[in-house]
Specification:
Blueprint lengths: L1 E3 L2 E4 L3 H12 L7 H14 L7 E5 L2 H11 L12 H16 L12 H31 L1 H24 L10 H19 L8 H9 L8 H9 L3 E3 L3 E5 L4 E2 L15 E2 L5 E2 L1 E2 L2 E2 L13 H6 L3 H11 L1 H7 L4 E5 L2 E6 L7 E7 L11 E6 L6 H8 L14
Helix pairs in contact: 1-6, 1-8, 2-9, 3-4, 3-7, 5-8, 6-7, 6-8
């Protein structure tokens, strides 16, 4: 039996629990619709509510947010924002989907508080009371805390992308008309409210993992856990529930960040997608240009973040060689190089030679990214060990 704090926690090891919920958090592919619909009805019953009269299936969080705006009468706020031309047909498709269900004409108020928040609060109170503050903190660090950074980062990216797709605030230039700014600000407000009403399904895996390990998935939480295993984000209203599909694709790097060089890093069945390079959001058409990069093209890029993506893809070593860069400093630890970039801090790197020969007798070169203010190669190498230059005296370099 696993022990957390002073009291026994659960017969299931946290490692086993975290493995299950880690898999849930990144699950792709079609939702298990039958299981999800049974679970959502069980969640309503557990909350003391009548089962919803209609279950509406949608293809992505974007469609879910549009449906929520339609059900709450706020979709008109999107009209005449910058993205309206591409939003209007999507809104029409979602409206048609809702029109298939008579209950959507009178959905009632949102019931997220009853079906999600209150069961969560009760479980947390029970668990905290049973384990104490120290035990709760330890439980969280071993379970939900492991999943929280990546799950919340991903949910935040989805929220941001949905919002920008609908209001286009990021596209407003300095010369935008005041009236357009007012319309956009109004749209930002209602979109934020719609997204706050969503239950995050698989992206609620962190706290579900904690309560699962504590054996606190009671009648109120077990349906939410089943929904997390079988569906994407969802929006509960008195008489209607909006359920959305999971992603069709999810690509991440070793750090758990969205990452793909040849397509969307996250994609849904309706085409809503996020493109990213090692977590950095990039335009969809930007990735197609990476194959033909040149030093001149990299220097000409005005967006500093995109320029850094280009440099990482092109390779710093290759860029230095192709740019005929001059070394700043040399000593026994290596060679210090600087890449000047317009409107951005310079990229400074130390070229070091591995003193341990490879099996074929050659020595491999490594490139260490160091702070821009670095003045000597020794200072840069010492910085990678967390030391000032005058305290870096390796007995044997490897």
């Amino acid at each position: 039996m696993t022990q957390l704090g002073a009291r026994p926690l659960a017969p299931r090891p946290p490692g086993e629990v975290i493995g299950h919920w880690r898999q849930v958090a990144v699950q792709t592919g079609p939702a298990d619709r039958a299981t999800a619909e049974q679970a959502v009805r069980a969640a309503y019953r557990a909350a003391g509510l009548a089962e919803p009269a209609a279950v509406v299936w949608l293809d992505s969080p974007l469609q879910g947010a549009l449906a929520a705006l339609l059900l709450t009468g706020c979709a008109e706020r999107l009209r005449d924002c910058l993205p309206w031309a591409r939003v209007e047909p999507q809104l029409a498709r979602v409206a048609a989907r809702l029109a298939e269900h008579a209950a959507a004409a009178d959905p009632g108020v949102g019931v997220r508080e009853a079906v999600r928040t209150r069961p969560w609060e009760r479980a947390r109170t029970r668990t905290h009371g049973r384990l104490g503050a120290l035990g709760w903190a330890e439980l969280w660090s071993l379970t939900g805390g492991e999943l929280w950074p990546s799950s919340q980062a991903l949910a935040g990216r989805i929220r941001g992308a949905v919002a920008e797709e609908l209001h286009g605030a990021g596209e407003l230039g300095a010369g935008a008309e005041p009236e357009l700014r007012e319309r956009t600000a109004a749209a930002v407000g209602v979109i934020q409210l719609a997204l706050l009403e969503a239950v995050l399904g698989q992206h609620d895996a962190p706290w579900l993992a904690a309560f699962d390990a504590a054996e606190e998935l009671d009648a109120g939480l077990e349906p939410l856990a089943e929904l997390a295993r079988s569906v994407g984000w969802w929006w509960p209203y008195e008489r209607v529930v909006l359920l959305t599909e999971r992603p069709t694709e999810l690509h991440r790097d070793e750090a758990g960040r969205l990452d793909r060089a040849d397509g969307p890093a996250l994609a849904y069945p309706d085409g809503f997608a996020l493109h990213a390079w090692h977590g950095m959001p990039v335009p969809a058409d930007f990735l197609a240009t990476l194959g033909g990069l040149t030093p001149e093209r990299i220097r000409a890029e005005e967006n500093a973040e995109l320029r850094r993506v280009m440099l990482e893809h092109y390779g710093y070593e290759r860029y230095l060689a192709d740019s005929a860069a001059e070394p700043l400093h040399r000593d026994e630890t290596g060679t210090l190089w600087r890449i000047q970039l317009p409107d951005d801090e310079p990229v400074v790197m130390v070229e070091v030679l591995n003193s341990t020969p490879e099996p074929d007798g050659t020595s491999r070169t490594y490139w260490l990214r160091v702070p821009p203010q670095t003045r000597t190669a020794r200072e840069g190498v010492a910085w990678t060990f967390g030391l000032p230059a005058d305290q870096y005296h390796p007995r044997r370099e490897t």
